[in-house]
Amino acid sequence: MSRISPSPHLPRFLPSTQPSLPLLSHQHLVPLFLHCRWRTSAPAKEPEANEKRSVPMTNWWQRAVGQRLNSAGVASFASVVAREPHLALPHIAVPDIRWIDWADLERLGFRGVVFDKDNTLTSPYSLSLWPSLSHSLNLCRSAFPGKIAIFSNSTGLRQYDPDGSEARALEESIGGIHVIRHEIKKPAGTAEDIEKYFGCSASLLVMVGDRHFTDVVYGNRHGFLTILTEPLNLSEEPFIVKQLNPLNSVIYLTDVLTYLKWE
């Protein structure tokens, strides 16, 4: 059985030898700066197979530009860096979803999982699941039957998918996982649509995504347990995201030093 393994450079806070512990508030379960990894024997990421489905070409240009110019994300980035850098720090970080023990999360009391799409489950602009993630996603389905959804800044966002046709195509392609339709890009907006779908507070849900300043900030603001994955396909990363990546290390260091100062 896998365990949560904190970085050796930071104090141990997790009761990692007791997976059957009752649910704890994840604000107390791990400090926000703590970069954890789930130990498994998962292999290194494999090259992606040929994609079978992708977004319509008529939407590709608008989608590409829109993802690079997320005005809410830019505004949030400035605010987070200046005043709340801890919001960009995940509770747990993993190479990809194969490193997550879904059964352990369910035993801890979490009631559902919300995934980002692009570079978390699929290559950007694709509607096909990244091939090597299929088994892990099936394990997630087994641990959380009927309690998995996708909340994306592309598919399901009414700006790009007004009639929901792309969301339906993705649901069919990856085995019926629901795509939540919404109006506002992460990290802006509320968690109301997600909580309505799951029928519970966001504090009982897990948010999984590959971006610090959208998925993680959104999840932390609304009380999710946040799990950061590495992007599946770096060659498809938007230019602005590539420029922001070096700042992640600065934010980690700043928050760790602040914590050590108060300790």
UniProtKB/TrEMBL annotation:
**A molecular function (GO) term:** phosphatidylglycerophosphatase activity
Question: What Pfam family does this protein match (any one)?
Answer: PGP_phosphatase
Tell me what organism the protein belongs to: Elaeis guineensis var. tenera
Q: Name one GO cellular component term.
A: cytoplasm
What is the name listed in the Swiss-Prot or TrEMBL entry for this protein?
A: Uncharacterized protein LOC105050638 isoform X2
